């Protein structure tokens, strides 16, 4: 399976996509908002954005990275998705470089036989919200404003493209030494185990490029506008973070589920979920949070009030700093919040991204709240595809000619 | 048993004499101006303490010193050594070389010598690449030629495997006998950049540490005191003077830690909220069992990001010198302040600015506690009672809100009010079970130093399979206890005060980060081997 690059580029190679004038360009000044928004969308996981944010700040100093909406790309434009896979703790020691992602994209390009026109985001939650922009600086390409998860999720097959039956291959994993593995074909169920098996030989973390798709496919199966939504959420958060808890939650469009002190922590073991038991000061309720890498479900006095794929965030009660699942400590008080989803996963995806995907037996339908049930709407988020469009909030630069108008998408 | 606690602050040097840490009788306190050479203030303070208490130098069992001297030196960028920052990690880590995000001024102050070598380890302890001795010796030559005199060595995953850092230290010792070497695995925890930065800061302070520790030892000896000298560390435990000479960075957070621990000790309330009201700000911290709660986020010191564990402190812009104004939106207090010019600018001292202190005096608060009468109360007699009442209510509400945000449970907590502006803390602070105003609070830092114990900490990645979990945790506990004993604790008294395990995400082999902390009574008077 180990391969050297060397395939010839196909005749369809077209170089960087043309970016419409007036499109947002990601600049160093966007980083605080991008990092904050990404951390919130990490739902307690997704890794520390610190190192990628530093790398990106240096990389963007040489020039901004344009954002492009999928509909603004020609139908046959090639988008290659990139992300960091493996342990965030390894990233914090061994770091990464834009070059690693460039190598991974080049490997995929060599198998496809043509050059990429834009870089796609796999995961808008956690550090992977920043990695594609870093890759884009190295490749000289724009980044597509959208992603394939609408949040952070732990596995590389929990993607809208996978739900819609698109092949992840050819995909490539690359470690900092430049060791490159190119997988040219594999069954959908083998993607995750193959990536993990290679990670073990690569020191536990690697750069990944997968799902080379045309812009036409991405328009039908991607989640639009999530990078802009992430930036807006981050901006709103930074402006609201010093407000009292209830006002803070309202301003970022979240529901405050509980303010509670951590009494007991049952750590996760491998793929077996862990849990945290908390005591709510104000109500006396017993609160349970199930977790793996992300916070998976919040149950208050036996009633599940939030569950994956809904976005659950724990924040510090003082400065409202998000607390990742690995930072929870006995004796700490946290505010538990539910953020509106950036993507309405279809109910058929429950076995992939719902509580059952993690072996949690919760009430049927937990995590799959009907669109519109959530109020108030997240001011930073684009409207859910099935939700009524609020004329007052343009969702993305591409909104007017957006082909996925309500009802046309067939995945509610 | 008598102990001397000394706090060398930027302005004042405080000294206290206490009898035994557990009973905690405070026998004497004094303050002297800090001198540029650090030791002058200590000489004056000890002389004064001896005159007022009549202690015999030979009766002193230990001298504990807390100082902000090293952190101030970094902030000011003075007295720093020319430092070489050498990292093992290539081909990984090349995108962010050592010193990359340092403020230019500090980078220049230490010479800006940054080097990368091949090697380091993976999370499981295997090598990223072999140790290239030729490469390292070449780098070392370059560093020396560039003028570096102190060496900071970091290596990827050195908390898992320190081999490369140790080999580098051996080569430096052989090439440059006596040159100070700081190794990242001995200083910081997981997270390369934060650990490396702490190591570089430590290396840059080594010359100063040599100078200061020598001065401290000599000063104490010249006062006729033969007892061992210890320095306060960030976490409120002690290190002996030789350890401090090698790890000056470990003193960085000792100021706020000592202040809070001292306040809790004076009020005999080991679990409490400490409200420290200064001239410009009010700092609120939380203690559990006598130790400050740690901040969860990384801290940046003088613009350098480190991963030290610092006490969790929340500050609001209200202090004794805060401006008080009646505006269109009601009464405002702070954040503008007359600061240290309180005694010139406040109304009660004949100045023209209405301050929070004037309000407290007008309300008759200045007579309470140990604060004594402040200024001239006739100068504020004209103030509108509704303004006085409104301003006090505003101050009380802000303080109550801050305590409320910091406390960890719904139950009211005891609040210990300290600092020059503590008269602003109302007796009936909402959320407080009681407000305690301890005696001697002005020297809480020195008290905090005097009562400190010896501690040891382990923070490493272990491979924890479910069957071996207890064995691994025991191993970590034992290592923490051993370190506490090595730091000067009496073996029989050492206790584990904190242990936590965090499984690392997405790693095979059950890699788990375990942190254990042990604390014990200082071994004094030759009982170390007991």
From TrEMBL, chain A:
Q: Which Gene3D superfamilies match?
A: CV3147-like domain (3.40.1610.10)
Domain (S-Me-THD-like C-terminal) spans 190-361
Q: Where is this region: Disordered?
A: 369-412
* Top-level lineage group: Bacteria
Which parts of the sequence belong to the S-Me-THD N-terminal domain?
A: 30-184
Which InterPro entries does the entry link to?
Answer: S-Me-THD-like_C, S-Me-THD_N, S-Me-THD_N_sf
Tell me what this protein is called: DUF917 family protein
TrEMBL record, chain B:
What the entry lists under SUPFAM superfamilies is as follows: Actin-like ATPase domain (SSF53067)
- Domain called Hydantoinase A/oxoprolinase: residue spans: 195-367
**Which organism was this protein described from?**
Streptomyces iconiensis
Name this polypeptide is given: Hydantoinase/oxoprolinase family protein
Q: Any idea where the Hydantoinase/oxoprolinase N-terminal domain is?
A: 4-175
Q: Name one Pfam family in it.
A: Hydant_A_N
Recorded hits in InterPro entries, A to Z, give: ATPase_NBD, Hydant_A_N, Hydantoinase_A, Oxoprolinase-like
The organism's place on the tree of life at top rank: Bacteria
């Amino acid at each position: 399976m180990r391969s050297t690059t060397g395939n010839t580029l196909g005749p369809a190679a077209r170089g960087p996509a043309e970016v419409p004038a007036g499109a947002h360009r990601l600049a160093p000044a966007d980083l605080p908002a991008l990092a904050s928004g990404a951390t919130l969308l990490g739902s307690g996981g997704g890794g520390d954005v610190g190192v990628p944010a530093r790398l990106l700040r240096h990389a963007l100093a040489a020039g901004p990275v344009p954002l492009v909406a999928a509909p603004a790309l020609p139908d046959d434009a090639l988008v290659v998705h990139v992300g960091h896979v493996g342990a965030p703790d390894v990233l914090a020691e061994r770091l990464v470089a834009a070059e690693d992602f460039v190598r991974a994209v080049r490997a995929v390009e060599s198998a496809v036989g043509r050059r990429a026109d834009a870089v796609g985001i796999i995961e808008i939650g956690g550090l992977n919200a920043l990695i594609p922009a870093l890759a884009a600086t190295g490749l000289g390409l724009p980044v597509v404003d959208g992603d394939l998860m609408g949040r952070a999720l732990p596995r590389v097959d929990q993607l809208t493209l996978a739900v819609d039956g698109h092949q992840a291959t050819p995909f490539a994993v690359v470690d900092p030494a430049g060791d490159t593995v190119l997988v040219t074909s594999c069954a959908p169920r083998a993607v995750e185990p193959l990536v993990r098996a290679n990670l073990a030989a690569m020191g536990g973390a690697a750069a990944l490029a997968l799902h080379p798709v045309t812009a036409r496919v991405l328009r039908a199966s991607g989640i639009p506008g999530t990078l802009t939504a992430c930036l807006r959420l981050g901006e709103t958060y930074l402006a609201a973070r010093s407000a009292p808890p209830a006002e803070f939650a309202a301003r970022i469009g979240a529901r405050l589920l509980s303010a509670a002190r951590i009494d007991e922590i049952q750590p996760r073991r491998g793929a077996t979920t862990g849990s945290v038991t908390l005591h709510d000061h104000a109500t006396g309720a017993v609160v349970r949070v199930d977790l793996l890498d992300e916070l998976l479900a919040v149950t208050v006095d036996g009633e599940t009030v939030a569950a994956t794929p809904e976005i659950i965030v724990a924040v510090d009660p003082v400065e409202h700093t998000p607390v990742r699942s690995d930072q929870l400590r006995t004796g700490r008080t946290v505010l538990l919040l539910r953020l509106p989803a950036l993507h309405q996963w279809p109910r058929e995806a429950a076995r992939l991204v719902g509580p059952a995907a993690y072996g949690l037996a919760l009430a049927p339908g937990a995590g799959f709240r009907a669109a519109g049930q959530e109020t108030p709407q997240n001011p930073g988020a684009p409207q859910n595809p099935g939700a009524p469009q609020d004329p007052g909030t343009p969702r993305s630069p591409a909104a007017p000619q957006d082909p996925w108008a309500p009802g046309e998408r067939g995945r509610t | 048993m008598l102990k001397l606690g000394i706090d060398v602050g930027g302005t004042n040097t405080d000294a206290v004499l206490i009898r035994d840490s557990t009973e905690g009788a405070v026998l004497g306190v004094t303050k002297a101006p800090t001198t540029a050479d650090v030791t002058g203030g200590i000489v004056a303070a000890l002389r004064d303490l001896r005159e007022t208490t009549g202690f015999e130098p030979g009766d002193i069992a230990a001298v504990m010193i807390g100082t902000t001297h090293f952190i101030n030196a970094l902030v000011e960028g003075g007295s720093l050594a020319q430092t070489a920052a050498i990292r093992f990690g290539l081909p990984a880590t090349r995108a962010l070389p050592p010193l990359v995000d340092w403020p230019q001024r500090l980078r220049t102050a230490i010479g800006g010598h940054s080097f990368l070598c091949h090697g380091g380890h993976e999370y499981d302890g295997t090598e990223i690449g072999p140790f290239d001795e030729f490469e390292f010796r070449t780098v070392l030559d370059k560093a020396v030629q560039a003028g570096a005199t102190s060496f900071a060595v970091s290596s990827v995953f050195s908390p898992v495997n320190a081999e490369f850092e140790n080999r580098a230290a051996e080569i430096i010792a052989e090439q440059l006998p006596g040159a100070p070497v700081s190794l990242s695995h001995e200083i910081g925890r997981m997270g390369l950049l934060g650990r490396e930065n702490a190591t570089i800061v430590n290396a840059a302070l080594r010359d100063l540490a040599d100078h200061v520790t020598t001065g401290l030892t000599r000063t104490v000896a010249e006062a006729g005191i033969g007892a061992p000298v210890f320095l306060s560390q960030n976490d409120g435990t002690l290190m002996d003077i030789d350890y401090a000479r090698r790890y000056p960075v470990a003193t960085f957070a000792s100021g706020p830690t000592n202040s809070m621990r001292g306040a809790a000790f004076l009020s005999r309330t080991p679990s409490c909220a400490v409200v420290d009201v200064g001239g410009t700000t009010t700092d609120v911290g939380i203690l559990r069992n006598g130790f400050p709660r740690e901040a969860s986020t990384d801290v940046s010191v003088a613009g350098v990001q480190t991963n030290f564990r610092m006490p969790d402190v929340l500050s609001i812009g209200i202090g004794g010198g805060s401006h008080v104004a009646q505006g269109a939106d009601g009464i405002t207090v702070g954040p503008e302040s007359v600061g240290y010019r309180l005694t010139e600018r406040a109304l009660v001292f004949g100045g023209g600015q209405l301050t929070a202190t004037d309000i407290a005096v007008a309300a008759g608060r200045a007579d309470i506690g140990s604060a004594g009468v402040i200024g001239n109360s006739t100068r504020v007699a004209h103030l509108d009672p509704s303004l006085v009442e409104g301003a006090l209510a505003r101050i009380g509400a802000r303080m109550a809100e801050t305590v409320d945000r910091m406390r960890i449970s719904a139950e009211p907590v005891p609040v210990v009010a300290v600092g020059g502006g503590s008269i602003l803390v109302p007796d009936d602070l909402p959320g407080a079970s009681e407000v305690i105003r301890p005696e001697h609070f002005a020297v809480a830092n020195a008290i905090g130093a005097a009562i400190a114990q010896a501690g040891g900490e382990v923070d490493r990645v272990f491979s924890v399979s479910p069957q071996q979990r207890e064995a691994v945790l025991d191993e970590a506990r034992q290592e923490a206890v051993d370190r506490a004993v090595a730091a000067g604790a009496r073996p029989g008294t050492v206790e584990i005060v904190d242990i936590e395990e965090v499984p690392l995400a997405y790693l095979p082999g059950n890699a788990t980060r375990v942190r254990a902390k042990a604390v014990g009574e200082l071994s004094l008077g030759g009982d170390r081997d007991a």
